[in-house]
Amino acid sequence: MLILNRLKAERDQWTSLSKSRPEIPPIVTSNVNAIHPTDINASLLDPEQALILAKITHSPALFTRTNAQERLRKLHSSLEFKVDQFADGVHKIEQYQETVGRVADKILRVCAGKLEERDKKQKERVGTRDLPIQEVLRSLSRILPDSGGSR
Q1: What is the Cβ-side half-sphere exposure of residue 43, based on CA atoms within 13 angstroms?
Q2: How many whole angstroms separate alpha carbon 63 and alpha carbon 41?
Q3: Closest among 25, 45, 26, 28 to 37, alpha carbons compared
Q4: What's the whole-model pTM score?
Q5: Long-range contacts of range 16-23, CB-CB < 8 Å, 24 or more positions apart?
Q6: What is d(CA 22, CA 106) in angstroms, rounded to the nearest whole number?
């Protein structure tokens, strides 16, 4: 019940907050169908958007609706090709990663084999090839003098 009461209290808080939201002035102050850059409230925009708006308002002759539509058409026509290139690049990177992984695994297998071979040769040279390492250590502990605190 405690959780249910807490959830109800939280719901009530959200409800009160949604009712008391401040009025935000509209971004565009005139008719939406005929927007002019000077009609946009720049104080409501992000800094990057405000910078773009400033460029547009300082040179309105460069920015017309048809000009913007043409630029968007050009961007749209090259977008699919760029996305395909990006997907191809990602695919090539994945293939490279798989190949590098296989090569690294092979190199590690070869190195592990060489290390085992070297270890085996070293044990044969010392004469402990068939003895487990625990036996070798036990034998060494019997040979070494006891260092029972005398120095």
Answers
A1: 4
A2: 18
A3: 28
A4: 0.39
A5: none
A6: 65
